[in-house]
Amino acid sequence: MNAKISPSILNSDIAHLADEIEAISAADRVHVDVMDGHFVPNLSWGVPIVQAVAGVTELPIDTHLMIEAPDRWAPDYVTAGSTVVTFHWEAATAPIRLARELRNMGAKAGVALRPGTPVEPILDHLEEFDLVLIMTVEPGFGGQKFLPNTLGKVRAVKNAIRERNLDVEVQVDGGVNRETIHEALAAGADNFVIGSALFSAEDPSVEVLAFREILS
Ligand code: DX5
Ligand code: ZN
């Protein structure tokens, strides 16, 4: 599986969002972080931003829901134009049922785990998902420091995927930069959410190519 780059627009210059997305057009996805101020102590944006992003890019949209009650809200993000909708295992009432609903709507279903959530409960259900997101920071804010002790979970999920020959992406999100990406890659991640390391760079388009080079 080719490694994918999913820039997080959370810390981009949102007054010029279309230009920011244009700058990362050599990436593989656009990662949209939805926060509700309850599941995480921060508030970002919702359905309208996904619709707006879908209107200015051909890149698939990877929506990361850091919200309570994803069972109720996640389908709306498929309708809004997301290719992948990832919800948190900790927040869902019926995660398997929700994943099936998202797939039935034509989207890819992702499941995310906070740093403190063990991976074992999802290992029996990997075929229900297209993507497993191992958070490498506590969700809620961009610009935090990568937590290397989360990489054991990346290894565990990757091993299970390999053993069973499944087609599931392993995504890491939080604190990924030109240094930490090597550790995540070695642990088995194949999809890299990158926020501040891209958008705080002078030229995000150059930075995407630099990450592409590292992953090639
Ligand atoms: C954190 C979000 C991340 C974040 C990544 O809760 O899920 O997607 O924006 O940003 P960096 O790369 O700055 O950690
Ligand atoms: Zn995210």
Automatic annotation (TrEMBL):
Cofactor stoichiometry and binding remark: Binds 1 divalent metal cation per subunit.
Domain of life: Bacteria
PROSITE patterns linked: RIBUL_P_3_EPIMER_1, RIBUL_P_3_EPIMER_2
Gene3D superfamilies for this protein: Aldolase class I
EC numbers for this chain: 5.1.3.1
Pfam families the UniProt entry points to: Ribul_P_3_epim
Annotated GO CC locations: cytoplasm
InterPro entries (alphabetical): Aldolase_TIM (IPR013785), Ribul_P_3_epim (IPR026019), Ribul_P_3_epim-like (IPR000056), RibuloseP-bd_barrel (IPR011060)
UniProt-annotated binding residues for a divalent metal cation: 31, 33, 64, 173
A biological process term (GO) from this entry: pentose-phosphate shunt
Keyword set includes Zinc: yes
Keywords tagged on the record: Carbohydrate metabolism, Cobalt, Isomerase, Manganese, Metal-binding, Zinc
Chain sites annotated for binding substrate: 8, 64, 140-143, 173-175, 195-196
Top-level EC class as recorded in UniProt: isomerase
The keyword DNA damage belongs to this UniProt entry's keyword annotation: no
Pathway assignment: Carbohydrate degradation
Protein family: Belongs to the ribulose-phosphate 3-epimerase family.
Role this protein plays: Catalyzes the reversible epimerization of D-ribulose 5-phosphate to D-xylulose 5-phosphate.
Name under which the protein is recorded: Ribulose-phosphate 3-epimerase
Lineage: Bacteria, Bacillati, Actinomycetota, Actinomycetes, Actinomycetales
